[in-house]
Amino acid sequence: MTDNGDDREVALDEDLDILPDQTTDDTDAGWGERPQSNDDRLLAERPPHWD
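^ that's the sequence the OP posted. Answer follows.
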């Protein structure tokens, strides 16, 4: 009789990172650019009715 593994327990580690949330290719640094914040421009262009 062969063991097909149905009764085998597998311990799952919650701290295990299989894949990162974001790769360096997805960032400005990955493209050779400096990180930029869009917050200042968005606040300056805020419509008057949002005050």
